[in-house]
Amino acid sequence: MMSGLKRPKRRFNLLLLDEGEFYLQDYSGYLHHRTQALKLKGRIHICSRSLMFEPDDASYPITKYHWTNVSNLQAVARAVDGLDCLQVDCSLVVQIHGACPYTFHKDTPPAYFSLNYENLKTFFKWVSELHQANNLPRHQAELAINRIVQTREDGIKFDYSRIEDFREVPLSDAISVQRVTPLTMSPGRLVLTDRCLYYQPLHNVSRKPVKKIHLDNIEKFFKRRHKLRQVGLEIFTRKPSSLFLSFSSVTERDRVYTLLLTQPALSHCRTEQDPVTMGLKWQNGQLSNYEYIMYLNTAADRTFNDLTQYPVYPWVISDFTSTHLDLNNPSSYRDLSKPIGALNPNRLENLKERFAEMPDPKFLYGTHYSTPGYVLNFLVRRAPEYMLRLQAGKFDAPDRLFTGVKESWQSVMSNPADVQELIPEFYESAPEFLMNILRLDLGVRQNGKRVDDVELPAWAQSPWHMLEVFRAALESDYVSAHLHLWIDLIFGYKQRGEEAIKADNLFYYLTYEGAVNMDAITDPVERRSIEVQINEFGQTPRQLFTQPHPPRFSVSPIPIPLLPDNVPSPTGLTASSSSSSSS
Fold first, then answer.
1. DSSP code for 153
2. Are 342 and 504 in contact (CB under 8 A)?
3. CA–CA separation, 30 vs 476, rounded Å?
4. DSSP string computed for 366-403
5. Closest CA to 473 of 578, 292, 341, 318
6. How much is the pTM?
7. Which residues contact 478 (CB under 8 A, 6 or more apart)?
8. Beta partners for residue 44, in sequence order
9. pLDDT of 495
10. d(CA 551, CA 583)
């Protein structure tokens, strides 16, 4: 199972919106710059917090005008070439150049926008309302913007002409949902028939006006948690691909889930195997360690579609300095009975002293082992647009980026604010996240070194070799014999409560399911504040076990070779930086 985090296919995409911003509508038109005698054809994108212009000519950047930075907005008759235009005076204009950091320009001349098909008077009234709402005091602005967004969305209906066959029987009315993808949410309408599931996004950012999934192409589906609420549903197809939908309530989600279960084409989904059954398969060697951890992540609401709940995998190797790594030597491994934050006794002692003096709700670690920031730091070279979204148009500081595996391990062993575990990509077969293939300008560190490819462990011959060794270590006899102890910490009985305190495994309270009743919070500002904290701190997986997890009976199956055919693969359970000693 491979990561769903991929680069966006279209130049304009929802990752260009700010955190908490909604996409509303787009128009065909022109951008005119009087001082430069420039006229660009493109799309005018109206969002809840900004106006963006996407030129058809990709050699020009996308420009973004935040409503809060617009000092003057007016409709001007015959402003340019006899055309009626919207004049926008903006104190700070953002330019977006693909996967490069955004550039910010002050004191730019007014921009003029003309429309190809729409009436300027109607358009001006609409954008003026957004401009005024954004410049109200914060709390009033949130309420006003939400009203505008909700009013427009309520007026959009499902297009029943998109149903494939007129003989299909609708099983539900159109249901309001949000499609969840990494760092973005897109409102839409869901319709379920006896043959297909249809998701229609409310706005035309997607290439397809309707996403259609034939029921007989669905492999499985799961209830999901989203923003600490049990309102999600994730559907996996045989392609494979997935659709993660968030509903307005648990009741609405459960109704659709039940409808799906009753469909004859989905009878194979009714025999979902529980954690105990899957645990027995793992104990008997029928599942690899990688497969079982992925299953536990899935059962505990972890998904590639939500970076606050990205699948979590353990650090298992602890030696990144030797030129020769012996995977038969227990000292090559991390202690899986302890959380990352407890591996360094001196750091742990300092954290415990702070914990003893802390008022309720107490926590040992103010950061988490899995957060959106950690995930994107690992994957910045593969999909830089996500970090640019998270960091408001910038890459993180060079000295905070993922620059080397040994350095990352040293950080989690010593830094009081770094207790992160790993992501599945470290145990898979695609090493692009370790390589700066896109030639990104990630900056220069304080030591004068430019950030480029990830620095590999001393024993690694290549990125492919490193991933193969990581996977071999994960499937080793040592990890097989101790993995149940890590499962107790992440998915099991030591995850929360008194057992978590005894195991030095207690995190910030908002990361735990049930810590706050989001449905009871009606104030949009308060609700948004908690959602921002969730995005910052991440979420602890749903607890799957309340008793100690049993150990494995047998050794792991031999992992499938990960290296491409044309790359020499080392043999045995050793790794070396010298090709002559890799066998």
1. H
2. yes
3. 61
4. SS-SS-HHHHHHHHTTT-HHHHHHHTTTSPPPGGGS--
5. 318
6. 0.93
7. 327, 330, 333
8. 27, 53
9. 98
10. 31
